[in-house]
Write a structure and sequence with these properties.
heterodimer, A: 901 residues, alpha/beta, Dimethylsulfoxide Reductase, domain 2, B: Alpha-Beta Plaits, two-stranded antiparallel ribbon, 8 helices, 26% helix, globular
């Protein structure tokens, strides 16, 4: 949201070039042990490893510096670091920092005079909220759940609203929350297409944004940010986080001294940051810090989002998300003016930045959906495309299930009976379904909920009262099929089948493909308008004997045909496209996911770059460009224009990565001057550092030679987000929905004012500082198990390593409640209570927060009632509540009580 | 459909030996086997993350059974000790002051030490325990009669009876893999290069450099220089072919500070006089391990790679005190 793409900016291997690594919101050693090898290699090279976390984990154990912070207080902690950095001597004397910040970020941009910060108090606007807060009005779906809504017009750049159009929060993409993005109003007509160049040009804003390159103007982003974080002093931060002030300063100083022209620091995070009601803002605070430290786009720098599951990155690129179609384009929605291709493009196309090519991406996508049936005359079949009507993410769908509005469900690679928040609520919801299909390796808790769930066993609900018809399909494992993974660093890797699946187990592709074929056969001959999309859907991935090896699963679809459609091809000749630059907006190209284009520039496995395994030679470039394929266009560190000075030369020899070579011939133009180096430049290859855009330019031509963030409308990294986020342009500390502490920063605004909460039966929440639930409960994973345990609790060699659920508490808390190590305790929340053995350890520590002692209670959530080793479902304790931008739950910080069982 | 299959770019653990191609026409060396030089593990406990991948990889390769027991309550350790079915064991040692101002969570992957002077080998009455061409110590299950003498003789508590085979079992340092030019399963699985496999000589060099690096960092930060090597030199049982970098006393890791062979409890009146034994021991203390490695290297150069394995202990002549 601040940098332009929803992806890790660097790759884990780049950590070996780091001088310091901050791991926060992640237990990287335990949950990403393989990627953590690079952090350990950095340590062997002498890098400083920092871990900030409520618990002293296996990551803390190998860190050089550990900062204990209360669960959910990360914005305060990082805000304190930002405040320390921008007021430090080094930051104000080493010219690198200001040059990077003034040139590559929006620090100099002047903001609308109507904008009021959380720190500003007026008669109409209290402390702790931004200008524009009002009540939320639900849409037709009725389950969007916001407790408030911002009108964000006042957050905009002065005189010239900057767009972010479709690239906004999930809940803004979907239209649940309106976002001021600078696009023309519904009443303004736009030129027709294709071609859509005139339409794009018509969207250009009238004025360029005002800037003050000295960063002195009190309304410039830098000064607003500085003022916003000014109260985040070590002492106040300590009162919020429980972290000793000197420890926070030590972390800040370590990052500061290890950032600069010849040094870089990286930040790694995972779901410890996302799973909060302000998780997106936590990550935004980290992005802000990395921008002011000049660490984005450089080797050993960046922000690495650690994905907790193989191909989670892929599942957002080629998405299983409700709000997004392929390549991060917004899903067509009834909540916006998406009544034609033109209306959609008008609403979602950014006229400047690479997103100006949206018409090419979108029309090529529609061609991949409907093939020859998609023509310019019928709007490329746009009317057939499904449209969303609100928040159809996990939690609202289970509420809808409870209400009888969702009748059937496929659970593939998912085990909500254990992994879902307020899991008992979710199991009860499953019981309201007409049918449930579970396709998995074992009979999971979700498949067995109707006879094995605790509420069935204890008689709360009778088996005969559950009418759900459950179908269980055995699933092939990853190693039993050919296919690809998309890893944390946007890296797509092809894998061959290692062994045949047992019995009748089938791959997910097989199941989905043949289900589609059978459904299409059922729709055959229908004249209903609503069925035309299904009838016209291209669905031809039949095995090709020339492409596909002899295969144990009968009728396994061709993964290469699927990859071809993702890569894109010429609609007329079928010839594979070389990359997304070849896409057209007139239907002459077909491409499912533009960001992956270039992964298969020719037919056959030999042309699938994801299958390439050519490492760098010894002493090579370190990007391993021949090892798999990273989107976009095989760039390994994105925004890598920022690895060079504004004039195009490397910041230093040590950190040279991509730079401008004025002599070298640009192969595309045969003229001298090209970006080159150890990586694929994430920049227009022949755009000179001194390039300035002509007035009226669109797309990349509208960005200058010093604008590294090519997906942002102004080419800058955003310290301040004028649009795109629904809960504010700057990160602000709030308390979790359930918290034992007051908001020390804003006593009258305890929680995020626009979070999502659903007032439904079976999901009670604790009162603020509820004495019945005095402790902070945080949930997590262990190295020894995977997620809900389906892939680990059935395996003897893993089951024996962590055989039982446990509750980690400090000796101090154990003493208070009179419990000894391994004695059974009961953990209670407003949702319910479960029992497990106590693991009493000094790795847990009491913290002093707002003058009060706070205990953390830690619980892994891997256990359930199926498998070799079983245990209570930790998520029976957690609650349904959501972040306003992406509707993730708050599993990392809620409240509980613990007593001897 | 030829996809070029090359070595992965994932760095091999520093110091790990690469397979050595056998000399053309060599009948003795199996294809791809490592050269017959002393080999072993160097375990750098400062980068161990306690992931237990070594335990799982070991059980997977060696087909060892799982034993699901109740939660131990001993930190994250539910394996608890080395025995006949756990040939790798990751120890978890929590060290925190009352106020948490000081705190460490030490982790260490423990395994058979493959002692240069191995008590187990010394006492084995059936000849089931052999010294291999890699200077490692292996129990042959088909020769073991389960008498348990080796269990008592091991100063590290490594060996136990495997409940399935009913014979004494322990780490083989993946003798079968070494003979095929594959590094042991545990070190191959270790994600952080905490367990490094290689020739003793290169491991010693890497280990010494790492100790120097850590202690230099400690000096710079004004912290005590607490890193040292355990078992790398020949002061402990002639040297351990699995040696460790530790940052606290050996006892903290449940390792003995000193250890002796069963034969040292015998009256010193047998073949050698007391003086002779002392003289030999002194000689050994200076250079035994060096000479031992040199002799292995010489044997390898002479194409005698297979000699010295299979029940013959190369150190026997030099020391005269084993067996």
């Amino acid at each position: 949201m601040r940098l332009g793409r929803g992806a890790a900016t660097a790759f884990p291997g780049s950590l070996v070039h780091s001088n310091a690594i901050l791991i926060e919101g992640s237990n990287m050693a335990e949950c990403h042990p393989v990627a953590f090898r690079w952090a350990m290699q950095a340590k062997l090279n002498g890098a400083k490893i920092i871990h900030a976390d409520p618990r002293f984990t296996r990551t803390s154990a190998v860190a050089d510096l550990y900062a204990p912070i209360r669960a959910g207080s990360d914005i305060a902690f990082l805000g304190g670091i930002i405040n320390h950095v921008i007021n430090s001597e080094r930051w104000n004397t080493e010219p690198f920092f200001k040059e990077y910040v003034a040139t590559y970020t929006n620090a100099a941009t002047i903001i609308n005079p109507d904008f009021l910060d959380t720190e500003d108090e007026t008669a109409d606007k209290p402390l702790g909220v931004f200008s524009g807060l009002g009540p939320y009005k639900e849409g037709p779906w009725g389950l969007n759940g916001f407790v408030g809504q911002y009108a964000n017009a006042s957050w905009q750049y002065d005189r010239a609203p900057v767009g972010d159009q479709g690239r906004t929060a999930a809940t803004a993409q979907s239209g649940e929350q309106p976002v001021e993005s600078g696009q023309p109003g519904e009443e303004d007509p736009v030129p027709a297409g294709p071609p859509y160049d005139a339409l794009v040009r018509d969207l250009l804003p009238d004025n360029p944004a005002r800037r003050d390159e000295t960063l002195e103007d009190p309304r410039c982003v830098f000064q607003l940010m500085k003022k916003h974080f000014a109260r985040y002093t070590p002492e106040l931060v300590s009162e919020i986080t429980g972290c000793p002030p000197e420890r926070m300063i030590e972390v800040a100083e370590t990052l500061l001294t290890n950032s600069g022209p010849d040094r870089t620091s990286a930040i790694c995070y995972a779901v410890g940051w996302t799973q909060h009601t302000y998780g997106v803002q936590m990550i935004g605070t980290a992005a802000t810090l990395q921008l002011i430290l000049g660490n984005i786009g450089r080797p050993g720098g960046g922000i690495i989002a650690l994905r907790g599951h193989a191909t989670i990155q892929g599942s957002t690129d080629v998405p299983t998300l409700y709000h997004s179609i392929h390549g991060y384009m917004p899903a067509p929605t009834v909540l916006k003016d998406h009544n034609s291709v033109e209306a959609y493009l008008k609403a979602e196309t950014l006229p400047t930045s690479y997103w100006a090519n949206m018409p090419k991406f979108f029309v090529s996508y529609l061609k991949s959906m409907y093939g020859d049936a998609a023509t310019a005359e019928n709007d490329f079949g746009f009317a057939w495309h499904p449209r969303i009507s609100g928040d159809h993410s996990h939690m609202p769908m289970f509420i809808a299930m409870t209400e009888g509005r969702v009748r059937g469900m496929f659970a593939m690679g998912q085990n909500p009976a254990v992994g879902g928040q307020n899991a008992r609520y979710q199991r009860m919801a499953l019981g309201k379904l007409d049918w449930l299909v579970v396709k998995d390796n074992f009979e999971t808790e979700t498949a067995a909920f109707w006879y094995k769930a605790p509420e069935v066993v204890d008689g709360t609900i009778a088996v005969e009262d559950i009418q759900t018809e459950v179908f269980f399909f055995p699933s092939a494992q990853v190693a039993e099929m050919d296919g690809t993974f998309t890893n944390t660093q946007r890296l797509i890797k092809y894998h061959h089948k290692a062994v045949d699946p047992p019995g009748d187990a089938r791959s997910d592709i097989w199941f989905t493909y043949h289900l589609g074929k059978r459904l299409k056969a059922l729709y055959e001959g229908s004249a209903e308008e609503r069925d035309q999309g299904f009838l016209n859907l291209t669905w031809d991935y039949d095995p090709d004997p020339e492409e596909v090896e002899p295969w144990a699963i009968e009728d396994e679809p061709s993964v290469l045909k699927i990859m071809r459609e993702i890569n894109g091809y010429d609609s007329a000749t079928g010839e594979h496209l070389p990359g997304f630059a070849a896409l057209k907006d007139d239907g002459s190209t077909t491409c499912a996911s533009w960001i992956y284009s270039g992964i298969m520039p020719g037919p056959g496995l030999e042309n699938l770059k994801a299958a390439s395994r050519v490492p760098d030679p010894e002493g090579g470039g370190a990007a391993n460009l021949g090892w798999g394929f990273a989107w976009p266009a095989n760039r390994r560190i994105i925004y890598n224009r920022a690895s060079a000075r504004p004039d195009g030369t490397p910041w230093s020899e040590e950190k040279a990565w991509v730079y401008w070579d004025p002599e070298k011939i640009n192969p595309a133009t045969d003229e001298p001057g090209v970006w080159t180096g150890r990586d694929v430049p994430d920049f227009a290859a022949g755009k000179a550092p001194d390039y300035e855009p002509e007035p009226g330019a669109i797309g990349l031509d509208a960005l200058s030679g010093t604008d590294p963030f090519i997906m942002k409308a102004d080419g800058k990294g955003w310290l301040y987000t004028p649009t795109g986020l629904v809960d504010g342009p700057l990160p602000t500390h709030y308390e979790p929905m359930e918290s034992p502490a007051p908001n020390v920063l804003y006593p009258d605004q305890r929680t995020n004012p626009v979070l999502k909460a659903w007032n439904v039966d079976g999901n009670p929440t604790a009162e603020p500082a509820d004495p019945a639930f005095p402790h902070v409960l945080t949930t997590y994973r262990l190295t020894e198990h995977h997620l809900s345990g389906v892939m680990s609790r059935w395996l003897p060699w893993l089951a024996e390593l962590q055989p039982e659920l446990f509750v980690e508490i400090s000796p101090e808390l154990a003493g208070e409640i009179g419990v000894a190590n391994t004695e059974v305790v009961r953990v209670l929340t407003p949702r319910g209570d479960i029992t497990a053995k106590a693991l009493v350890t000094r790795r847990m520590r009491p913290m002093t927060v707002a003058g009060k002692t706070i205990h953390h209670v830690g619980m892994p959530w891997h256990w359930g009632y199926q498998g070799l080793v079983t245990g209570a479902v930790t998520n029976d304790l957690s609650l349904l509540v959501g972040d306003p931008n992406v509707t993730i739950h708050e599993g990392k910080a809620f409240v509980c009580n613990v007593e001897k069982a | 459909m030829a996809i070029p299959m090359q070595a992965t770019p994932v760095a091999t653990p520093t110091g790990a030996a690469q397979p050595i191609e056998p000399a053309a026409g060599s009948a003795l060396t199996p294809p791809g086997a490592f050269d017959a030089v002393p080999m072993g593990f160097f375990t750098d406990t400062t980068v161990c993350i306690g992931c237990k991948a070594c335990e799982v990889a070991c059980k997977n390769w060696n087909g060892l059974p799982a034993d699901v027991v109740a939660l131990s309550g001993n930190s994250y350790d539910n394996t608890l000790h080395l025995n006949g079915e756990n040939w790798r064991h990751v120890q978890f040692i929590e060290q925190f002051s009352d106020d948490r101002a000081d705190g460490r969570w030490l982790m260490m992957s423990d395994v058979c030490k493959h002692c240069v002077h191995a008590g187990c080998l010394e006492v084995c009455p059936t000849g089931a325990i052999i010294r291999t061409e890699y200077d490692t110590v292996v129990i042959q299950a088909d020769v073991c009669n389960g008498c348990r003498d080796c269990i008592a003789a091991c100063p590290f508590g490594v060996i136990e009876i495997n409940p399935v085979s009913k014979t004494a079992m322990k780490c083989t340092l993946c003798y079968d893999r070494l003979q095929s030019g594959l590094q042991p399963a545990c070190s191959a699985a270790c994600p952080t290069a905490s367990i490094r496999f290689g020739t003793i000589q290169e491991l010693q060099e890497a280990a010494t450099a790492r100790v120097e690096q850590l202690n230099a960092q400690a000096r710079d930060a004004g912290r005590p220089e607490d890193a040292y090597l355990y078992g790398a030199d020949d002061s402990l049982l002639g040297g351990l072919n699995s040696f460790y970098l530790l940052v606290d006393r050996p006892e903290v890791y449940h390792l003995p500070a000193t250890a002796k062979l069963p034969s040292q409890d015998l009256p010193a009146a047998s073949a050698l006089g007391v003086g002779g034994a002392i003289g030999l021991a002194a000689l050994g203390a200076v250079s035994f391990r060096k000479r031992r490695m040199d002799s292995f290297a010489e044997a390898a150069r002479d194409g005698r790679g297979e000699e010295g394995g299979r029940g013959e202990d190369r150190g026997e002549e030099a020391m005269g005190e084993e067996r």
